[in-house]
Amino acid sequence: MSLAGSTAAGVSRRDPLDAESREWLRCLAGTGRDAPSAAEREHALARLHQLLLRAAHAELRRRSHPVRIEGRERDDLAHQAADDALLAITGKLDRFRGDSRFTTWAYKFVIFEVSAKLGRHYWRNPPVQVGGDAWERIPDRFGADPAQYAESRELAGALRRAVTEALSERQRRVFVAIIVDGIPLDALAAELGSTRNAIYKTMFDARRKIRAHLVAHGYLHDEEPRKS
Amino acid sequence: MSGWRALDQFLQTDPQDVGCDQAMEILDLYVDAVIRQGADATERRYPGVAAHLRACGPCGEDYAGLLAAVS
Question: Which among A14, A25, A115, A173 is most buried, taking Cβ atoms within 10 Å?
Answer without folding.
Answer: A115
